[in-house]
Amino acid sequence: MNVEVPLSIQRQKGGGSPRRDLFRVSIAESASVLDAIEAAWAQHDSSIQFRHACHHASCGSCAVRVNGVEKLPCVTSIAEVWDGAGEIVVEPLRNFPVIADLVVDVRGLFDRIEASEMRPIRAVEHAPPVDVGEVPRTNGQSTVVPEGIERFMRFESCIECGICISACPTAGLDDKFFGPAGLAALHRARQESVDPEAAEALLDLADGEHGAWRCHSAWACTERCPQGIDAAGAVMALRRELMTRRLRRLFRR
Amino acid sequence: MKTLESRPSSESPSEPRHVVRGHDPRRRGLGAWAFLLNRITGLGLVVYLYVHLAVLSLLARGPESWDSFIDIVRSPFFLALDVVVIAGWLIHALNGIRITLANFAFGARVQKAMFAVAMVIAGATLLVLSVLLFEGS
């Protein structure tokens, strides 16, 4: 069954002042918010700019704010965010420069994640669920899952959507802040690192006023992450490691 | 184009860093409220500290100036201000303990519960201290 949904989309070109355009879109009751945005684009205004690719929470490119809350609209159903009467308000992520409409410039996020030289690999592509010891493959051979891999799984799921940066109050106050995703990547790269010097260098990156210490402990990143990554937990872990290193250096003198 | 309505938005994301929006705890979760409370009480306590130091400088002017000042601050208005300072101190101190514990001991999993506990302790202590303050004066 189709429903008529009032969809209010924030529109903006370059540095221009933003406005909200209200569209009444006709979509299936079971549709997602991304379906609704696409319907507005297809049914009313093909100049609406938005980013999307996979439609199943894998690429992280469609992240926006729905009624003020950071969401992946591809996996957010209309029913979840619509009371059947009011408007669904779709806005771009916070704390990123807006390129146009719902499209934000995420270069800063990618730069920070890459600073850790961490290559995010999705856990499901890399290895099967952690409780499986030996996995039969189609060619008759089997893959042994490395022991303790679950330790590293948490950040492997990052889809680089930028939701944590948008939710983070600190990112809104300091544009040099390394950010939840960047710091979580550093933490993850340290866990994986076998070279003590490289691990120390990663810890150096996390140090300083724009690093792990800048975090104001609002836990908004962990709360909003659509992949269930505890980025704030990673920041806290980095602080513990930094503190341990400082104390060790202090008493060595 | 069948736009039903087009109106200016309150947002101005062309300037991504913004002090007010950065602190806005709405739709961010309990931790963001805790952060905002901690910041407000922190700034308030810094201001109070300087006021306090300025007031203490009255002591250098002899006992008369100090005694006349004490007479003023015993009024219910100033006692109410004292309650505000105690509230700020309790919230900031207990939230600080919560953040330290969450950072270095328990982790983020219990941060919300710890915030609730911290605020309950703050409220109860404030109540007791307020009663003592007004009854004692």
Q: How would you describe the overall organization of this protein?
A:
The complex is a heterodimer of chains A (253) and B (137). With 253 residues, chain A is an alpha+beta fold. Chain A is built from eleven helices and nine strands. In chain A, strands 2-1-5-3-4 form a five-stranded mixed sheet. In chain A, strands 6-7 form a two-stranded antiparallel ribbon. In chain A, strand 1 and strand 2 form a beta hairpin. The relative contact order of chain B is 0.10. With 137 residues, chain B is mostly helical. In chain B, 72% of the residues lie in helices and 3% in strands. At the A-B interface, strand 1, strand 2, helix 7, helix 10 and helix 11 of A face strand 1, helix 1, helix 2 and helix 4 of B. Strand 2 of chain A pairs antiparallel with strand 1 of chain B.
How would you summarize the topology of this molecule?
The complex is a heterodimer of chains A (253) and B (137).
Chain A: E1 2-11, E2 19-28, H1 33-43, E3 64-66, E4 69-71, H2 78-81, E5 88-91, E6 98-100, E7 103-104, H3 107-115, H4 123-126, E8 134-136, E9 142-144, H5 150-156, H6 163-167, H7 169-173, H8 179-192, H9 196-206, H10 220-224, H11 231-252
Parallel strand pairs in A: 1-5
Antiparallel strand pairs in A: 1-2, 3-4, 3-5, 6-7, 8-9
Chain B: E1 5-8, H1 19-23, H2 30-56, H3 63-73, H4 76-104, H5 111-136
Helix pairs in contact in B: 2-4, 4-5
